[in-house]
Design a protein that fits this description.
The chain is α+β, with helices and mostly antiparallel strands and about 160 residues long. The chain has one domain. It is about 45% helix and about 15% strand. It has helices spanning about 1-10, 15-65, 70-75, 75-85; strands at about 105, 110, 120-125, 130, 140-145, 155-160. The strands form 2 sheets. Strands 4-3-5-6 form a 4-stranded antiparallel sheet, with helices on one face. The longest helix has about 50 residues, at about 15-65. The radius of gyration is 26 Å and the shape is elongated. The protein starts with a helix and ends with a strand.
Length: about 160
């Protein structure tokens, strides 16, 4: 009789086990959400840093030439090698970019689009709001942009005034 009582008193009940499983599930959910949110913030930081870096190079080009490069210039590796030596098309790779993203890929390299979309940066040079692609030495304005994650919208930089 004594041994039966000890056996029943040791161990956990089904209700106790279920409560523990629910608590572990809730904790795992919280940790997972926090981790994925931290990774998205990190990728957004990379995007903003990349756009700021591109802006620095574009502004340096402007200070030497008194116009901004056109979109086709910025997507031309030969033009970049001659005019913006420190800029390569690999700098255009959004953290979520892949060569399978055909909307902003040329020769398996990332390119800039006129407007950013998820996975692709945007660069839109204009002359007083009008496209300057036909006469690229007249570009007087630009907008650089990146689409951020987690509903953060877009990160946008414009020419320095």
């Amino acid at each position: 009789m004594l041994s039966k009582r000890r056996f029943r008193e040791s161990g956990f009940t089904l209700v106790e086990i279920l409560v523990m499983l629910v608590l572990v599930g809730v904790l795992l959910t919280i940790v997972t959400l926090d981790y994925s949110s931290a990774k998205a913030r990190s990728r957004n930081d990379i995007r903003t840093t990349a756009i700021k870096s591109l802006q620095d190079y574009i502004e340096k080009f402007y200070s030497e030439n008194t116009y901004y490069p056109s979109l086709s210039d910025m997507n031309n590796p030969s033009w970049l090698a001659t005019n913006l030596k420190n800029v390569t098309t690999s700098m255009y790779a959004d953290p979520s970019w892949s060569a399978s993203n055909k909307s902003c890929t040329k020769n398996n390299q990332p390119i800039l689009l006129a407007k950013s979309v998820p996975g692709c940066y945007g660069y839109d040079p204009t002359n007083s709001g009008v496209s300057c692609e036909a006469n690229d030495t007249t570009c007087s304005d630009y907008t650089l942009s990146a689409t951020l994650e987690d509903g953060q919208g877009s990160y946008i930089l414009r020419q320095l005034d």
